[in-house]
Specification:
It is built from 9 helices and 2 strands, in the order H-H-H-H-H-H-H-E-H-H-E. It is mostly helical. The protein has a two-stranded parallel ribbon. Helix 2 crosses helix 3, helix 2 packs across helix 9 and helix 8 crosses helix 9. The protein starts with 12 loop residues before the first helix and ends in a 16-residue tail after the last strand. The mean pLDDT is 95.
């Protein structure tokens, strides 16, 4: 079936599946939200397509993004990650994932869940935008500025406003599927 999708999607079946099955669908699973935010941070300066192709390598390298395990990473583990050709080998980004895991645990202790904290920025409901063309979609918004500032204040790294907005789009906190995209009518939640 020939479907109209958002203009940013290429022809790779992996990218098409990501767009059709994940991007923009509300996500409430704490660990998956943590993984997604960390991968968005890894994307800084790169394309999401690059990260998506390496996602399984990232999951394996970062113990399925289990914050309880990640906070215990030592210098030897960091060196192992820096030598892993299957991921983005950037010392600052790797260090940020470790630091961010501790902030995640702090948020969960304080708020009960990471999802509850992140979704509190929109009152628990997705923001549905009405863009006709990809050129209308912003790279950041006052809301992503707010989320970025709050996460940075808690000590997270690689969570600038543009990263936060891309994360909110991917996690379905914001629905930015363009009006012509067939996914506009599919607002189902993913677990």
């Amino acid at each position: 079936m020939n479907r109209t999708r958002c203009a940013w999607v290429n022809t790779d079946p992996l990218y098409i599946a990501y767009h059709d099955e994940e991007w923009g669908k509300p996500l409430y699973d704490d660990r998956k939200l943590f993984e997604l935010l960390m991968l968005e941070g890894m994307q800084a300066g790169l394309s999401w397509y690059t990260i998506l192709k390496k996602r399984e390598n990232f999951r394996k390298a970062f113990d399925q993004f289990d914050p309880e395990v990640i906070v215990k990473y030592d210098a030897a583990k960091v060196e192992e990650l820096l030598n892993n050709e299957g991921i983005i080998r950037n010392r600052l980004k790797i260090g940020a994932v470790i630091q961010n895991a501790q902030v995640y645990l702090d948020i969960v202790r304080e708020m009960g869940s990471f999802a509850e904290y992140l979704w509190s920025f929109t009152g628990g409901k997705p923001i549905v935008n009405h863009w006709s063309h990809i050129s209308e979609v912003p790279a950041s918004t006052p809301l992503s500025d707010e989320m970025s500032k709050a996460l940075k204040k808690r000590g997270m790294k690689f969570v600038g406003s543009t990263i936060c907005y891309a994360f909110m789009q991917a996690a379905g906190i914001v629905n930015d599927h363009t009006l012509d995209c067939f996914c506009r009518s599919d607002s189902g939640t993913r677990s």
